[in-house]
UniProtKB/TrEMBL annotation:
<dbReference type="Pfam" id="PF00072">
    <property type="entry name" value="Response_reg"/>
</dbReference>
<dbReference type="GO" id="GO:0000160">
    <property type="term" value="P:phosphorelay signal transduction system"/>
</dbReference>
<feature type="domain" description="Response regulatory">
    <location>
        <begin position="9"/>
        <end position="128"/>
    </location>
</feature>
<feature type="modified residue" description="4-aspartylphosphate">
    <location>
        <position position="61"/>
    </location>
</feature>
<dbReference type="InterPro" id="IPR001789">
    <property type="entry name" value="Sig_transdc_resp-reg_receiver"/>
</dbReference>
<dbReference type="InterPro" id="IPR011006">
    <property type="entry name" value="CheY-like_superfamily"/>
</dbReference>
<protein>
    <submittedName>
        <fullName>CheY-like chemotaxis protein</fullName>
    </submittedName>
</protein>
<keyword id="KW-0597">Phosphoprotein</keyword>
<dbReference type="InterPro" id="IPR052893">
    <property type="entry name" value="TCS_response_regulator"/>
</dbReference>
Amino acid sequence: MPDRSKYTSVLLIDDDIDDRMIFGEVLKELAPDINYHEAINGEDALTKLGRDFTPDLIFLDLNMPRINGKQFLAEIRQIDHLKHIPVIIYTTSSHDSDKKETRQLGASYFLTKPNSLHELTHTLSRILQQQLF
């Protein structure tokens, strides 16, 4: 069973509505007590984070309009009250260059989007149990 005491709120930043819906459904099934929030890109997320909202964990897509994932990550690592938040890259990319660059920008973990609901459920469960990073 996931440790819900550490994570009370999660933010997913992803421009794909289907990915947000599936992620949200799996997260709610695994941990119904976690407050789940969404943003459609980095700009939207920065606006939401500017309203006294600080999630315990951020899942971040890389390829988005306006402010992409790398730009967002670089930005929040410069903001005192946000720079401590673990950020998990959640993207279709599996390129080593993306993994290296996001690690240098301060990402906690790099997760290529799973191909199945089962795989997503398993991976999110492990993350919530703090077994991946």
